[in-house]
Amino acid sequence: QVQLVESGGGLVQAGGSLRLSCAASGSILSINGMRWYRQAPGTERELVAAISSGGRTSYADSLKGRFTISRDNAENTVYLQMNNLKPEDTNVYYCNADIVKLGSTSTFRYWGQGTQVTVSS
Length: 121
What we know:
Layout: E1 3-7, E2 10-13, E3 18-25, E4 28-39, E5 46-51, E6 57-59, E7 67-72, E8 77-82, E9 91-101, E10 107-111, E11 115-120
Parallel strand pairs: 2-11
Antiparallel strand pairs: 1-3, 3-8, 4-5, 4-9, 5-6, 7-8, 9-10, 9-11
């Protein structure tokens, strides 16, 4: 019964900021990599940022410097700080995580339902 729930999306003016959160819950033994993706209608899902269990980060080249990924291992949560937002950042943003459940030796990749980010003007 592992699930990921995103929050923090909404409507913002160009140049503004949002902070997305994604919390994992359930019978979790450990979480390895965590990531943020985004997808607009008619497009393929795009990797935005990733963070390892040790805190190493990577970003899409076009977003580096505006977006920052971080995680709180004690809370099983990954964040995406988005600054200087542009209309082209309008997307549904999804998190995923590689999770080992209690009682399991296998890692599975879980996805959240997504949160809408809309940047106006």
